[in-house]
Amino acid sequence: MRKYETILIANADLRDEEQAALISRYGGIITGQKGILIKGDCWGKRKLAYPIKKQARGIYILFEFAGNGAAVDELERNLKIDDKILKFMTILKEDGIDPVQLEKELAEIKQKKEDEKKAPPPEEVALKPENDQPLKEEASAEPVSEENAPDAKEEN
User: Fold this and answer.
1) Is residue 147 part of a domain?
2) For residues 127 and 27, which has the higher predicted lDDT (pLDDT)?
3) Rg (CA), the chain
4) Model pTM greater than 0.85?
5) Looking at the domain assignment, is residue 137 inside a domain?
């Protein structure tokens, strides 16, 4: 099994629902060909360096997946047919990955994300005073002299 990355540029006129449908559709094609979808990410709308099919803007979508050559062939065949896709490119990132190890890593990442959602943000924990007493600012060890004091406006 090999690890691939496909980036595609879709028509900029697509709504959010259509973008999500594209990601789920092509993710389904990858998993339907016995591949493992690692990441399907929408990078958003960007200006293109040069016009592609008379379009100056496009929506960038990234797929990172593991699979065999048949999964790549089927994905690219569907991308060629779809009129919403302006351009795409698939590259081989890694050769000879262990699918069992990859599944374990993905499960660990998913578990970490779920744990982060359940835990309160660290800012709230740090700002909460102990024993419900108001926070006190520590006094500086050095007394403030006129030389060290902030500049005050002089009145004439």
Assistant:
1) no
2) 27
3) 27
4) no
5) no
